[in-house]
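Internal ticket - ligand job 154, D-ribose:
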Amino acid sequence: MKLAIGNDHAAVDLKFEIMEHLQNRGIEVINVGTDTNDRYDYAVSGYKVARMVADHEVDGGVLICGTGIGISLAANKVHGIRAAVCSEPVSARLCKEHNNANIICFGARIVGGEVAKKIVDEWLDGEFQGGRHAERVAMIMEIDETQHLKKAEE
Ligand code: RB5
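stdout (structure tokens):
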């Protein structure tokens, strides 16, 4: 498995901690974020990771900023992306099982390293359940692709 990881200046230390954790799991990690504490706008790495996921260059993405919010908002503007911000492991599991999130996001100012690793693990180990959830994800992607949702406009 290959993942891309990105971050802003608020999340450098946590990014390295998560990279090590992923590598220990045998996952190849491509780091496209900043490695310094100088200002680095979250939209840049949010876009870069999202682009790689949308283009199927990697199997998924991990994005970390101060809260996880700004970087997820940027990533979700790229067609095909479902980036979920999670601050605890239950949501992380469910964002894969129900929403088939292809990017997991969290905040370095919100969660500590151990919780962040658990969040990443639950997202990675969860399996999309399909069925009614697939129908709902298809609606999200219909909005993404057409800016309309037939079911809401009938
Ligand atoms: C950077 O100061 C901060 O705004 C950013 O990391 C993030 O929290 C935005 O959503």
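Auto-summary: The first helix runs from residue 12 to 24. The first strand starts at residue 2 and ends at 7.
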